[in-house]
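Hi! If you just cloned this repository, the fastest way to understand the data is to look at a raw example. We've pasted two of them here, unedited. The first protein comes first, obviously.
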Amino acid sequence: MIESQGTMYTWFRDSVDRCPDATAIEVGPDTVTYRDFAVLVDRLAAALVAAAGERPRAVGLLAARSLASYAGYLAGLRLGAVVVPLNPAFPPDRNRSTCVAAGVDVVVADESGVGQLPAGIAALPLVGRWPSSLPAPWREDYDVDPGSVAYLLFTSGSTGTPKGVPIRHRNVAGYVAHCVERYEVTPGCRLSQTFDLTFDPSVFDLFVSWSTGATLVVPSSDEVLTPARFVNDRAITHWYSVPSVISLARRLRGLRPGAMPDLRWSAFAGEQLTSSQARDWAAAAPNSVLENAYGPTELTVTCTAYRLPSDTTAWPVTSNGTVPIGRPNGGLDAVLVGEDGVPGDDGELCVRGGQRFDGYLDPAHNHGRFHSATFGPVAGLPTPADWYRTGDRVRRESGEFVHIGRVDDQVKLRGYRIEPGEIEAVLRDHPAVHDVVVIPATTAGETVLHALHTGVAVDPTELMNAVRSRLPEYMVPAAVHYVETFPVNASGKIDRRRLASELGDAL
């Protein structure tokens, strides 16, 4: 049971007390009970203090899909530190800048991350048979305010600077409690862990599992692409991933009808779930409840959800062929605000309530991201009565919210939220590029990024490598095109809609 006055760590400890012999996690060759996991976490907490020279305020996790990454997450929380997930697949400079911005005192690194530990920051490399080298368990009392920051994630920034999103334990409390009840998670359930820790739906995987005594089952990167095999081989009861996994599995012919007869719950988030994708998954998992969830990092993982009827003939038909994102979670208020600043049935989705964060790490990023209670501008830090502006255009259809697209140029790709402006900022640093526009384009049902630039024509590979050296792989454009000039609209601004239309016609 989730206590509103508790924290992400105390929810885990409560499960240790209730079901110590249940399996907390299965990752790689490791299968660990709650009792043993708690001891490992306490020992790792002591090692973090020793490595940092004092109790750390923020712990970086330069690790992925390893026992070290998950134990490190809990060890950071055990110490009352802010957990800052990093990604070994990201460029080293990006991880280092994240650590500096977040004030990370010590970085946990596994085999995948130890080769790129940032200089000047204390490190705790966990390689080989690392548990045997840990000190005695940390024994100091745990006393953390639920109002303190639990974790800090960085989203893509329109100015080229990622935005830090601090999420507090109290933001997570209502969300996790809602999910535990909605998805009937109890001891004995087995939940997938498909999301990278830098992607906030991973919080669902970890803490809906660990707050209930359920088992977190971590697939390898390859196993994520073969969900039916993974679900069956590991007796998964709850699956949660981005919808693009369905498309990839379908392409690999791994989603035959009836392939997952024992799967009980399926949820998708991170990008639009099309009706076609949902039908393929429903056919493969005929006994599973199927849901589509939605939410930006700033609203603590997901803030709305829609449950598809078990009878596929009763499924809704939406204006854009996607599954509705449903209605807001309990304890949240949501409205659609039009361009005229008046709530209606079509507009930007704005949300307030317990899951809403308190503002960005850099207060300058708050500008323009909140509406007041009366939908006017917000000066200074937001208050609890203020609405977070998601930037997503949503329409109410047959009583349910349907995600239409972005009110700005931001896009989601493979579950990641991307500001094209961040990619454009990198490309503009190249001497051959005068100006550049990055836009999404869909061909054969797959959305990819295209970059168009003015200046001097150069080998597109050179420009793609320039992006690759500074940004994650998912932000590297699939193609780069040289153009002499950009069309402009009546205001003299680059006409992105026209560029997107022309690109679509050319593809």
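Ok, and the second one:
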Amino acid sequence: MSSQTNTHSLLASNVIDAIRTRRTVREFTGEPVPRDVIETMLEAARWAPNHRQTEPWRFFVLEKDGETRRQVAQLIADWTFENVKNPTPERRIQSAEQARTEILESPAFMYVYAVPGPNEEVTRENYAATCCAVQNMSLAAHALGVAVGWSTGKPVKPENLAEMLGADPSWDVVGALYIGYPSQEPSAHRKPVEDVTTWL
């Protein structure tokens, strides 16, 4: 076997292992995530599949202890307080504070948006490409020992979020990313491939 074949086999093994072992995590140690790690993740993101070359992804990194992070955390807390399901006064307060604290304490925190296209087809492709960009970021992070929690829940719900971030209101929010060094390594299971595949 040639050295080139050995290299390709090792690379394939590393990639597949990263795909299998990457997990969504939102419980982190207090260790800061260096800026160069975030930049490496962003570099991986911009090489996501994008056959029309629209490069539709837009990223907003909210600095730890920064004013924008504090404002967004409060915005999400307010939204949570008003919208928590089956609320009691105590649950409203607890849920709102939990949402606010999670954003403030996340070692790194980012929003990802997709720019819509000139028609529905391109808009859908742009959203899909941006989702691929987030997956690229998550895999790059995992390779560097960092975990990502991708949320499409409370952190993206307020209507005036885009305005607060400086994003165009017409853009589609793809998610909020909690980023940090994981405090534990969760496990997961998937159905066998033959359960979800049809050979024709």
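That's it. A detail worth noticing about the second one: The mean pLDDT is 92.
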